């Protein structure tokens, strides 16, 4: 590994009709147009989605440049195909179901999981941080569990869905947890125990394959990384960079705690689930549950300040501390994706305002 862990990001995007805002089934043709410009877009479960994957980055400045490039090329490919690219956790306006992308694997998922698969359009963001090995990834995952609800709140970006304010900052998170292999991960004592649980889910039919290990933090199946998958796709590149910096800082801090042999306090599953719900409901501008001390509801920005203090040595060692503080101040003042969606909706209760806000943020 490098002197500090590298980072990479996958962002999922929605393709919509520019006039109506309804999702459009054009991921294959948009991907072909992007490929002609040297960018490979991954096809997601439903035909209204594409995914970008950054190169491995050593610094957040490198990551910011790469994210900006990928979003612009994907947006231009969508526009050339008569669609609009949106960085939103869920479609603001939708049909009753989406066509499944026509691959053998996706067809099997659609057949086995029914409406859970068909009613998708769910767009998340996955942050990969390099770790020494799978055992380290599992131990780091255990230590990240108390912080996952805060990371969810920071990037919440799915307040408006089906032409309505859902009452949640991240309705995506609520829908996503319908999958039997999604949501907050269990605590695992070892990589062997992790593998045994995955085998059980496969053997019982709760997962089709290991790619459906959808827990919000997991050892990557393809890279020597720990993968944090808890967040909606953030509204802006700046928010994605902030999320990635926080995730890397948390991973580096967890690795340092492991090296020191620091005790990991127990975390009850019911407390973690409650914190997830609270983060999805309130988002950045409400309250979150303090999982490290009081288990009380505390203003989210206060707990985030505590998280940044906790991981400050890691952030300073990679030169991200000032950027993180500056960006947290900015989104506290101007809002993250969910707050911007809700403000746009409240102006006239017109979905066109939400779509325009999301489109502007995507390329901001």
Automatic annotation (TrEMBL):
SUPFAM superfamilies: Glutamine synthetase/guanido kinase. One of its GO terms (molecular function) is glutamate-cysteine ligase activity. The keyword ATP-binding applies. InterPro entries: GCL_type2/YbdK_subfam, GCS2, Gln_synth/guanido_kin_cat_dom, YbdK. Keywords: ATP-binding, Ligase, Nucleotide-binding. Gene3D superfamilies: 3.30.590.20. It is an enzyme of class 6 (ligase). It catalyses: L-cysteine + L-glutamate + ATP = gamma-L-glutamyl-L-cysteine + ADP + phosphate + H(+). It holds the Pfam family GCS2. GO terms for biological process: modified amino acid biosynthetic process. Its EC number is 6.3.2.2. Belongs to the glutamate--cysteine ligase type 2 family. YbdK subfamily. NCBIfam families: gshA_cyan_rel, PRK13517.1-1. PANTHER family: GLUTAMATE--CYSTEINE LIGASE 2-RELATED. ATP-dependent carboxylate-amine ligase which exhibits weak glutamate--cysteine ligase activity. This is Putative glutamate--cysteine ligase 2. It comes from Mycolicibacterium agri. The lineage of its organism: Bacteria, Bacillati, Actinomycetota, Actinomycetes, Mycobacteriales.
